[in-house]
Write a structure and sequence with these properties.
- It comes from Camellia lanceoleosa.
- This is Phosphoacetylglucosamine mutase.
- The chain is an alpha/beta fold.
- The chain has helices at about 1-10, 35-55, 90-95, 100-115, 135-150, 165-175, 180-200, 220-230, 255-260, 305-325, 350-355, 370-375, 395-415, 420-430, 440-455, 460, 500-505, 535-549; strands at about 30, 55-60, 70-75, 125-130, 155-160, 210-215, 235-240, 275-280, 285-290, 300-305, 340-345, 360-365, 380-385, 390-395, 470-475, 485, 490-495, 515-520, 525-530.
- Helix 2 crosses helix 5.
- The structure holds 2-acetamido-2-deoxy-6-O-phosphono-alpha-D-glucopyranose (16G) and zinc ion.
């Protein structure tokens, strides 16, 4: 019919590059930007179908995050603002790899029938498009639009250059019928931040600490947006470097570089020793802190995602216990929300020990936001972070509803009491932190607010616990899929025998811990090792790398 012939003709303008196979991994499709036009076009089609299927607004983000500037990628935001539902990933793979227009049209036809997608309602399909600052973004955006409108009636809305979390936030807000423009996003962040600052207890050591934060914007969209946010923000002294005007995106800058290399990014040096510094990644969904050491070649103290998680968890726990103080006898007022933290095997063992000692419940999932997010959503308050700096805090609807009510009640009965303040702080956190995905901008503001609340310097924060020395290696293999893991990637179940060998080797090291897993984004197997000294961690990692090679 008509729809089929439109897909046939439009897709023939976007032929797939021969011999390239892509898969919708943890980060969507990602490749050299020159290879991506047909894929992005096809993901446009998929997004329109997803929108029809869910009767909701869907997001399409064009970014390759921390990867090099010549790469690009495309990722879908589901109606909730989260990642694309995993049961659609095989369809995404099939679409991207269909050899020609005929196969493509057939695939779509079959899928529409199988999923009962109401093509006749296509005017209700709406897709929000965002892209980062990569030069290839504009032409890929056009390919995405062409894909979307080849489902006749579907509407593509270009939201311009955005951070990944901004687009996810907008999609979530739209589907909740809330205000969803970029200005709404900035206003929500700045007002909830201001609220937390206004609630800082008198006498906090605020004035004694160095109040200035210096942020590395990775020469990407995050730095740009932070400049905008800074203008409407009240109560934060912030300097932004690498905001994209001079340097190259992600080149010697950004959260991934800082976390992996453990050195200061470009534009930072010994003169910054002792100052609180932060680094965003190329699409601003990761955040790490660091402080430059005074003596040696750009070495830093890294304050990674695990420590951000620890700071958030401490603060939330403190507010919850204040809120529930003296309420033991009035059961109906004392809602005990479930609080859980979610980590991956990459979390430093010292962080896990610390969180356990602090009485927190900890769960582990495989690497990848979709797994962490899903697990965190099982709690009233679920906090998740990857060591690389991606994470957020999720609040259940039920808890927020209760908290809202409790807050109004306290405003009447004991306005200004410690309990009332705790309730207001928790509400402010739920508005400041991005409930859709990890967001470096909102994460940064929450870290800054909590440090001011505690009266802590970055040094005091970093002293919460001491990271165990660790080492990461990657091993190029012919086929990384032969390695199969279980138990949140901590145990290799195939090939047989490998795990036993890893156990024997690891047992030789005090506090040794080691795991291997196939990467979800690169054609390699990754090795992680941890031990009490750097030398031991290095040795353990290399001997395990030899086992998988
Ligand atoms: C992707 C994931 C990130 C994960 C990384 C691991 C999302 C949005 N991003 O960037 O969470 O840490 O992959 O990469 O899920 P790897 O599998 O190559 O080690
Ligand atoms: Zn990113």
């Amino acid at each position: 019919e008509k729809q089929r012939s439109i897909i046939l003709s439009s897709s023939s303008r976007f032929p797939p590059p021969p011999g390239v196979r892509l898969s919708y991994g943890t980060a969507g499709f990602r490749a050299d930007s020159l290879l991506l036009e047909s894929t992005v076009f096809r993901v446009g089609i998929l997004a329109a179908l997803r929108s029809l299927n869910t009767h909701s607004v869907i997001g399409l983000m064009i970014t390759a995050s921390h990867n090099k500037v010549s790469d690009n990628g495309i990722k879908i935001s589901d109606p909730s603002g989260g990642m694309l539902s995993q049961d659609w990933e095989p369809f995404a793979d099939a679409l991207a790899n269909a050899p020609d227009s005929q196969h493509l049209a057939q695939l779509i036809d079959d899928f529409v029938k199988k999923e009962n997608i109401p093509l006749e309602e296509a005017e209700s399909a709406e897709i929000l498009l965002g892209r980062d600052t990569r030069p290839s973004g504009e032409s890929l955006l056009d390919a995405a639009k062409q894909g979307i409108i080849s489902i006749v009636g579907a509407v593509a809305v270009d939201m311009g250059v955005l951070t990944t979390p901004q687009l996810h936030w907008m999609v979530r807000a739209r589907n909740k019928a809330m205000k969803a423009t970029e200005l709404d996003y900035f206003n929500q962040l700045s007002s909830s931040f201001r609220c937390l600052i206004d609630l800082i207890p008198q006498g906090s050591a605020v004035n004694k600490m160095n109040d200035n934060v210096v942020v590395d914007g990775a020469n990407g969209v995050g730095g740009e947006k932070l400049e905008v946010l800074k203008k409407i923000l009240n109560g934060l002294d912030m300097e932004i470097r690498n905001s994209g005007k001079e340097g190259v995106l992600n080149e010697g800058v950004g959260a991934d570089y800082v976390q992996k290399e453990k050195v200061a990014p470009r534009g930072f040096g010994p003169a910054d020793a002792g100052i609180r510094c932060a680094s965003l990644d190329g699409d601003a969904d990761r955040l790490v802190y660091f402080s430059v050491l005074s003596n040696a070649n750009n070495k830093i103290d890294l304050v990674d995602g695990d420590k951000i998680l620890s700071l958030f968890a401490l603060f939330i726990k403190e507010q919850l216990s204040t809120l529930n103080k003296n309420e033991g006898d009035k059961e109906n007022k004392c809602y005990r929300p479930t609080l859980g933290v979610v980590q991956t095997a990459y979390a430093n063992g010292a962080s896990t020990d610390y969180l356990k000692q602090s009485g927190l419940e900890i769960m582990f999932t495989p690497t990848g936001v979709k797994y962490l997010h899903e697990k965190a959503a099982e709690y009233d308050i679920g906090i998740y972070f990857e060591a690389n700096g991606h994470g957020t805090i999720l609040f259940s609807e039920g808890f927020l509803h209760w908290l809202d009510g409790r807050n109004s009640e306290l405003a009447l009965t004991s306005k200004g009491s410690e309990q009332h303040k705790a309730a207001m702080r928790l509400l402010a956190v739920s508005k400041l932190i991005n409930q859709a995905v990890g967001d470096a901008l909102s994460g940064l503001l929450l870290v800054e607010a909590i440090l001011k609340h505690m009266g802590w310097s970055i040094h005091r924060w970093n002293e919460l616990y001491h990271d165990l020395p660790s080492k990461q290696l990657k091993v190029k293999v012919v086929d990384r899929s032969v390695i199969v893991t279980e138990k949140a990637e901590t145990v290799v179940v195939r090939p047989l025998g490998i795990q036993e060998a890893i156990n024997i080797e690891t047992a030789k090291y005090p506090r040794g811990r080691c795991f291997v897993r196939p990467s979800g984004t690169e054609d390699v197997v990754r090795v992680y090792a941890e031990a009490t000294t750097q030398e031991a961690a290095d040795n353990l990692a290399s001997s395990i790398a030899r086992l998988v090679d």
